[in-house]
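Can't attach files on this board, so I'm pasting raw text. These are the components:
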Amino acid sequence: MTLWKGRISTGMDDAVAAFTVSLPFDQVLAPDDLDGSRAHVKGLGKAGILTDSEVSTLLDTLEVVAEEFTTGAFTFAPGDEDIHTAIERRVTELAGDVGAKLHTGRSRNDQIATDLRLWCRRSLVAVAEEVMALQDALAQRSVEAGGVYLPGYTHMQRAQPVLLAHHLLAHGWALARDVDRLLVTVDRLNISPLGAGALAGSFLPLDPDYVAAELGFHGRFENSLDAVSDRDFVAEALFDLALLGVHLSRLGEELVLWSTEEFGFCTLDDAYATGSSMLPQKKNPDVAELARGKSGRLIGHLTGLLVTLKGLPLAYNRDLQEDKEPLFDAVIQVSQALIALRGVYETVTWNEERMQTAADGPAAAAIDLAEMLVEQGMPFRQAHSLIGALVRDSLERHVPLVELVAAHPELGDAAVELLEPGVAVTRRRTPGGAGPGPVAEQIERFTRRREVDRTRLAQWAPSGHS
Ligand code: ARG
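---
Top answer:
Structure tokens for the assembled complex are below.
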């Protein structure tokens, strides 16, 4: 069905139609488009533009159409340019003349802006739920990790031992910021554009506040031009997803490294690894690599949309149709990566001995030796240089550090104890630090933080938007 046959005499050339249609990708908006139409129909009834019986006919018809989508019985017609056209066509087929009243006072411009906000609201909430499920896996593995430790790195050089739980929770907190960002984005985008019409509002006595409330939005647009042209919320969603993707990429990169023979810190479960088509011995971390690789695409989606938006004059321009594919793809890719990585973390085996042996290199406790001297009154810079010189001496003369420490007049037996395997990590006792005391407290704080986030998420559950 074309919506403009009064003004435009001919149909569209097939190749041009293929270029302009959005139905192949915007059909995922069907539930949101139907929600928007229900609210609009009620609004038209409230404004006295539709009679009560017209309202109930249209609402019933929209229900039938919704059912057709749910059961897969809905069939698209060749002329359906987009999801809005398809649904309006079907409503008109089913309801006859009254169907032709559905679009009164509405444009596809405010309609698509409404649909997309509704879609973003439910999809970003669903992504946040998946992020929390990954956090659960990290939390679970952190609790199980107990006193296991590994080297902490700076500049990719072994620096100080840290508890494995501390390391895993570092990723958990980054994900907590992702949950927060997603929910703040949802909160900000929760404004209704419906009633802005094509660009200027309407002469008809529509009530944008009423339809906004019907759709669970916080409120209505302030300016109709802005309402139909604003895609900030899509850009924000894409940023949130790109940054989340960057976090997943770092998780993936770490698993790739840790599962190498060189590191050997972990063994991936067979269900989350792949073999090589040629080399029989290979076990490859493809899932982790894809979690890393997808981030390029996600960043591309964000930059692509920003470029699309930057030159657009007010108000609606068809360029805006280009917002959808990157957005839909970003949500799919991130959701799949979250599910896959969760499975990896739930099943990965930590090679605790490898981790701990790597962390037990004597120099890993160098800061503890220096801090012991500080406790005895030596200025830190002097202590740093004394221990640094011992480490160098040990390396150059191939004498174990422990012997040099034992023989040093200002160090001796108490210092030798600090070099015992597993001792250094227990000495990190400041809040937020890597030792057992602060980590136990951190696990509790992480649990509380997730409880708070779960409550925030529950407010966006499908039954109770707003
Ligand atoms: N498919 C269009 C989009 O995604 C819907 C709005 C069309 N509006 C119009 N004036 N052609 O933006």
